[in-house]
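User: Teach me something about this protein's shape.
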Amino acid sequence: MKAAYILQTGDCDVIQVGELAEPNCGPDEVILRVHATSINPIDTYIRSGLVAFELPQPYRLGCDASGTIEQVGDNVTRFKIGDRVWCTNQGLLGAQGTTAEKINVSQDWCFSIPDQCSFEDAAANALVGVTAHLGLFREAKLCAGETVLVIGGSGGVGSMVVQMAIAAGAKVIATAGSDEKCERVKTMGAEVVINYQKESIADVFQKEAPEGVNLFWETRREPDFDLAVQLLAWKGRMIVMAGRDARPVFPVGPFYVKECTLSGFVMFKATPDEMRICAEDINRWMAEGKLKANIAERFPIERIAEAHRLQENATLTQSADLGGKIIIQIQ
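Assistant: First, the predicted structure itself:
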């Protein structure tokens, strides 16, 4: 079968596309005929060696996938041959990834694709959707009527946070780095969108949310805690999910005087049951048209090195070249 894999970590040129043996199906697993995968920043960290896991040889790239089940193990009860499913949380902690024509996945990490949803949309929404849901509801316990500020609302995770918060009945204010991206975030339902290249976020807030926001979601690699604490309301919450090497200044006094809380998390440490709760809402919102994939680019599997380079550059430089998810087309 055709697959994208590496034999050693390094720059994008270490990625190979070639034939690998088809996977075996364990008793609790399904064999998925993959139609689409997506690229996430974590994929580039693993490929480059920035995040060090003991990798199988060869190691297939990718965390997300969507496709059709071709085989089920003896103990599988949740799915049958022919079912359309999506999965995430693969390719991590030493496990094999998803960018191949066929993959074996535990049934615990698979979730049905709604009839109204395409394979590409399901793959695009997988990791980023679970991340957004965990942060909004498990960590921040978002309630209807609250106000959320999303820094980077046009990005992969940011666009999921915007749409899920709106679906939950919250008011959303978001930032984006260009007029085009601002318009895209407005179509997602954000009430206020700030072009941070042209406007001061703090100045806009004096007019739009003078009492502050209940939740500040930070997507940047360098969190701005001074800004966050300034804009948070009393008992406001802040979420961080990026910036592995960041060491920013933290305004301790204003933070505790406002009785704020700060949460950080990584989605790949969530349990299957926690992810299933996320998947139920993600699937319902996709079926209802409330959660739409934010796909920026599509590449065939043969051009995956180019796709990795685009994702890596966007992640490291926070460039405006990528405003959403990258899809890898397998079939």
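Now, about its shape. The two ends are 12 Å apart (CA to CA). Residues 213 and 232 are 5 Å apart (CA to CA). If you'd like, I can walk through any region in more detail.
User: That's plenty for now, thanks!
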